[in-house]
Design a protein that fits this description.
The chain is α+β, with helices and mostly antiparallel strands and about 170 residues long. The protein has 2 domains: about 110 residues, no CATH class; about 50 residues, no CATH class. Helices cover about 40% and strands about 15% of the residues. The protein contains 6 helices and 6 strands. Strands 2-1-6-3 form a 4-stranded antiparallel sheet. Strands 4-5 form a two-stranded antiparallel ribbon. It is elongated and about 60 Å long.
């Protein structure tokens, strides 16, 4: 799933369309909502595909504010804290192997996971040489679901260019 953001009165190719999959969109939208809620208050559905959006003036105001955040280092600071938070999330038990590190269901057996040789690093972690799981690499735990939502200033720069040239937008 993704967010397809269409310019309502674009002045360039960049202003016609902006897309992020849900993984990239959520942190981008969260940054905006945390730091510029007063500018974007007319858009109340940032995390849905129901056609909500912003008008041209709000887009231009938001683009300027986001660019100032980049120039001042504010966004880089937020990115660092956000990535530290993602890295600090506790690992989750793997449901595919019932925390054992060895997938023994039909899919596991069909794909030879029950007797697959483990990578040397995983052998050290687990104390065994064979038996794996495609979801957790044989460890029994996997990164937190929330850790899969990346944020980058480069992605935001693309969105800023879209905002500058879209003439307003709608999210579908």
């Amino acid at each position: 799933m993704g967010m397809d953001v269409y310019g309502t009165n674009p002045t360039s190719k960049e202003g016609e369309y902006f897309r992020n999959n849900v993984w990239w969109w959520r942190p981008l939208a969260e940054y905006i909502l945390e730091n510029h809620a007063e500018i974007v208050k007319s858009c109340t559905a940032w995390h849905t595909n129901d056609g909500d959006g912003l008008g041209e003036l709000d887009c231009l105001t938001l683009a300027k504010a986001l660019q100032e955040d980049i120039s001042s280092g504010r966004m880089a600071e937020w990115e660092t804290k956000y990535n530290e938070w993602r890295a600090s999330l506790p690992r989750e038990d793997c449901d595919y192997c019932n925390k054992t590190g060895i997938r023994t269901d039909d899919i596991g057996f069909k794909n030879g996971m029950h007797d697959k040789e483990l990578d040397p690093e995983v052998q050290i972690l687990t104390g065994r040489t064979h038996g794996s799981c495609n979801a957790c690499s044989g460890v029994g735990t996997r990164p937190s679901f929330l850790s899969h939502y990346p944020f980058s200033i480069e992605n935001m720069k693309s969105f800023i260019k879209f905002l500058e040239d879209c003439g307003g937008f709608r999210i579908f």
